[in-house]
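Two records follow; treat each independently.
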Amino acid sequence: EGQTQNRGFIGLAALIFGNWRPSGIAGGAGLFGLAEAMRLRDADSVLAIVLLAAVVLAFVAIRSAIARRFVAAAISAALTVVLVVYYAKAEVVPTEFQFMTPYVATLLVLVFASKRLRPPAAAGKPWRKGQGT
């Protein structure tokens, strides 16, 4: 009891985001670990991460526009503008948002990344030692 400290859903999301591959799972764990680490940072560092997220979203918007995915480019550009305006006007990020970040990141990754991922063919099938496939 209490082994996952209420983060089992995030672990499952890392598994899905990593497409059931060890290198992908490590990347997913790193992403969610970064989101979790935001709780431990001071307000100035978290505000700098907001600016970093805006830069990453601007890159995604440009890349989506080049790939002719205009809806994704428009959404990414709009989120970039929102984050830049927030960065310019805010002095600190409320602690409530710092605590929400890992869960919001988990939901966003599952919504956007899980559409293109496929689970293993034998997922959910019972397996007994000695049985053939």
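The next record belongs to a different protein.
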Amino acid sequence: RVMRDVAQAIARHGGLFFVDSMTSAQSVAEAAARSAGLPAAKRDVFLDNKADVAYTERQLEEAADVALERGSAIAIGHPRPTTLLALRRLIPQLQARGIRFVLVGYVVR
């Protein structure tokens, strides 16, 4: 009920979208947003459950694999120093593999 109300309030503003971070496997946020007429999606990969560069790099590789398989992927994380370092290190390599980084609004349908 709460997510339905939130989604309906967001939908009234127009031009917005919703990304479910899926912090719970029981999340209903994406479905509630879609039911309210909002473009919505859920994240595919969470980058930095651990504040560790190597872990985040592995998660970025996972996001790249998903994107190459499905055509797109949504990866979310925090502005942690370890996350930013992993991104700096891997972005050139991922781009060389054909990965293109875009704003999430281009992926949400």
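Discussion point: The chain is about 50% helix and 10% strand. How would you locate this feature using only the token line?
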